[in-house]
Design goal:
seven-stranded mixed β-sheet; 19 strands; 464 residues; eight-stranded mixed β-sheet
Length: 464
Amino acid sequence: MEIRKLSEVQWEIPKTGPMNVPVKIHASKQLLEQMHKDRTFQQIVDVTTLPGIYKHAVLLPDGHEGYGFPIGGVAAFKEEGGIVSPGGIGYDINCGVRLLISELSIEDVKGKIPSLLEAAFQAIPSGLGKGATQKIGRSEFLELISKGVKWADGAGFTEAEDSNYIEERGSMPADPSFLSQKSIARGLKQVGTLGAGNHFLEVQRVDKIFGKIAEKFGLCPNQIVIMVHTGSRGFGHQVADDYIKIMLAAASKYGVKIPNNQLSAAPLHTPEAEKYIESMKCAVNFAFVNRQKITFHLRNIFEKMFGSKLKLLYDVAHNIGKYEIHGGEKLFIHRKGATRAFGPGRDDLPDAFQKIGQPVITPGSMGTASYVMVGLGNPGTFESTCHGAGRVMSRGAAMRKLGNVSIKKKLEAQGIDVRTDNLRNLAQEAPQAYKDIDDVVKTVYLSKISAPVARLLPLGVVKG
């Protein structure tokens, strides 16, 4: 496979054979070499063979092998002649991250991080399959997934202006009629839960500021912030599982040529595509509410412990599909392990960010830095950027290679407190299993995709 160098951080796989468009890659030389270790390049090339793909497929510096589409992949499809593929959005629909900013400095919380983490650990269920402490009824659940954060407004889980600081304002109006009963049953039990895998809740301090935008975001050195990373839990997973199978039959029905079953797809505007999109939006709404309810618990904890409030800086999705306008074209954008990074002037942004661009929340690996960035509105990536560090080691490989290493002790030696009910699974999320977040952030900055605003360092983490 030919990979042409365009610059120090930009590469291209030219259009050949069955490819409909080329691939544009954003990566340093080291990050590019890491992508060679799995099927990342073949997967993004496979994406380019799908009908109706527009201009080029995009691979971001945190890219690695996924299900069908690679993680860190972006693909846009024309409204007429294009497709939707559940594999291009992923199993954890609207897995995303939000950042809550406090009025406190590191001095204000000295000696209190263990108590803070314990309170969060007790209030917010975490771990594989863990259910919510407060169940909701079926009719209320259907309203929740139809309305998203608009439902949370009525349920008392939001504060004024919260919805303005969430992608899509926390709500993608959706019809739940096309969901399976199994997906509904799974979702009923999990609103307000953290989950497992790479999901976490992290107490952080602002370590470094880059330029004047930080002040406009409300960030300052040594400030305490909380990052929440979770998604649609078993509900979104079931939606994806249901529709990957449905789309496989649809691909055959409509004559959509797919290179493998993981890229099952249906043409846009067909019944199968419309049903999937409505169901996907239900999972998007679930995830927004899930992070909102976790925020509600964290705000109560901060109020009780410190008499202090938490403000929502922004909430971004990084597994999502939706229509957007790019270059005057209405396109269906698949972002899988990729974050929207709108630049200044987009009508979709709240007034506070109209002149400066959208905040981008970029988690690192457990024990390393995370970043707040700002979108630069790069048309070449369909205004998308990285979603985090990106894996270099699968969870299974991390367990085999790092399972005997006491990750918890290493983190505590760094001054990072940890709360989890599954110590063994910490190895899956060890820093060694991930790429260098500083290299990833440098790459997107040099590619003029997004720019760093603040660097955050962990003080404590709650893991499932």
